[in-house]
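Why does residue order matter? Because the sequence determines the fold. Keep that principle in mind as you read this record.
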Amino acid sequence: MINRYVIIVAGGSGSRMGVNTPKQFLPIGGLPILMHTVRRFRSYSSDLQILVVLPSEQISVWEALCRQYQFDEPVLVIPGGKTRFQSVRNGLESIRATDGLVAVHDGVRPFVTAELIRSGFETAEQTGSAVACVPLKDSVRLVQPDGRSQAVDRASYRLIQTPQTFQLALFRDAFRTSEQPFFTDCASVVEYAGHPITLIDGSYDNIKITTPEDLEISELKIRLIE
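Structure:
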């Protein structure tokens, strides 16, 4: 069976939440968000190798939370870098295998489903990459530097999510490049390295918890699921 990995990047500070606690450690449904995310990937497969990338100063906090909540899911915790690019690369360098598939996921997207995870791995195995996305619901306008704007066809655009899944050798090749200011996600790194990107259907439920409103919505969603 092909090796499968997931690098869960959790480097949030909680500033947009208006709190001092890093957002991945905020509780929903009585459990820190990051633990929900880890369990979603574990529910996909007991054989999946899970790497959690955290800022160095937050690792002891995570370990204390694991003891507090008796959370014993087997994960490898990796110190992150100053940027997302560096954090993903740190996680990638901790994978010793030369072949396989690797997904990268936001630690604060706790509603990812096993079906989406599976779709990512299966598509990436065939095409090299699989990037979750959803169509835009609202109308879109392009704003010019002079302040003028014009309508654009929203059907031509997608909102990008995670997981973003890749063949391991391809992913390693992409992350040998120097970091660029326009790298906003792993797909942009892989594309810069000259590899095509395959989009797959994500989910509107697969939200990234960033604001207090997101937290309130997530608390309601957890109650419905449980």
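The chain is about 35% helix and 25% strand.
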